[in-house]
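Deliverable D5.2: sample structural annotation.
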Amino acid sequence: MMSFDQDGIKQIDVDELKALVKSPKEDTVLIDVREPEEYESGHIPGVPLVPMHTIPNLIDGFHKDKEYVFICRSGNRSQNVSLFLNENGVGKVTNFNGGMLSYDGETVNGSEIHITSVDELKGWKK
């Protein structure tokens, strides 16, 4: 299956996400929007945590020229984050459709990277 649009938001599937994890693109940023306890019980290595409820306060940290791929448990929260950012001028947003429930690549447990400020988000993957 290839990427498709849902409510104007680009959707990618598990194979497309695994390709991005394996060969990261300079202008593409993966972000996990689940809660800390979900993230700590299994996340994709190197992908930072930015819980959904913190996104509105961090909106100034998103670069207009980067593409952001949002990840959650099932694909619902990440779709909502994508829609919210799209409505607020962050145009290059992508949803991982299927979420971590469908992810069969490598995961790690525990806390790794938790972005909590606009400056941290701006500086992530410069």
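Annotation notes: The radius of gyration is 13 Å. The longest helix spans residues 76-87.
The annotation will be released with the project's public dataset once the embargo ends.
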